Amino acid sequence: MKNPELFQGKNRLRYYKNYFEGWYFKHSNNDLSISFIPGISIKNGNEQAFIQVITKDTSYCVFYDFDEFTFSASPFFIQIGKSLFSKDKIELDINDEKQNLSIYGTILYSNIQEIQKTRMSPNIMGPFSHVPFMECNHGILSMKHKIDGKITVNEDIYNFNNGHGYIEKDWGTSFPKTYLWCQANSFKESDCSLSFATANIPFGLFSFRGLICSCIVKGKEYRFATYNNSKLVKYEITDNTIGILLKKGTYSLSIKCDNVKGFKLLSPVKGDMKKPIFETINSVIDMTLKKQGKVIHSDTSINAGLEIVR
Question: How far is CA 240 from CA 281, 284, 297, in A?
Fold first, then answer.
């Protein structure tokens, strides 16, 4: 639980016939942005691996045989086909003639920025991390880190030297039926990062709207979550914008996202990667953090990730 980057399925596959696990690696540098989602899915014993790719202009999903997926706990890495993913770097070698897709190159990571962890809250899900039957588990591996390197995408060179990245992951049986996720770390003032998600969470015979949000400003994390009595005061979605207001004690955090049209990705339903969802990494996010009504920090980020499922 303290190391959600590790392959969780090793111990869970004996209990679940339907299972998924996916990592999310996002990279940004000025007007460039690209994300990779390597993972596995199992539906009634049918196993497959995949790598999804999303750019500012399009998206791809490349499937692999399950035996092309390997993992290591120490040091941590996963490998799908010829591509390797870790907290230190990614090495890409993706080719799919049917989609006219070719991606290769290496991006190095350094100065990983993790969220705060305690024994009761070993990752972003807090005490819910200890609940064994959650439909979807979520982990934040790095809110922001430095990236260096170049990759080639269909003959276009992406230069990520002195850029920054973000890493998270999900695992379980299905994504929530409804949720909103946004993420940003390309703020004008560089020492700021934000990750927010709210979803309808099934919990036994009941369900509730869950909230998790981490906002890091100048090295200090401000956590807003269901488990620390934070409140989702405002949650409005229009054709053009999304408005969010969170409160915890004397702190408040307002988030405004441009509702930008996304590109198709696949999400799991009982382990099967079949549900189309749409994500953009080209939104703009305005955020304002206050204490007792006084502004602590206010900033704007480009290259923001946004995903809405209603």
Answer: 16, 11, 24
Please name which of 98, 94, 181 lies closest in space to residue 140, comparing C-alpha atoms: 181
Distance CA 136, CA 39 (A): 14
Number of H helices, E strands in the chain: 1, 23
Distance between CA atoms of 250 and 293, rounded to whole angstroms? Answer: 8
**CA–CA distance, 158 with 106 (Å, rounded to integer):** 11
Give yes or no for a cis peptide into 75 (omega within 30° of 0).
yes
The C-alpha atoms of residue 46 and residue 4 are separated, in whole angstroms, by 24
**Does 2 score more than 90 pLDDT?**
no
The continuous run of DSSP H or E covering 11 comes out as: helix 9-12
Please state the pTM of the whole predicted model: 0.97
- Per residue in 163-214, pLDDT tens? 999 999 999 999 999 999 999 999 998 789 999 999 999 987 789 999 999 9
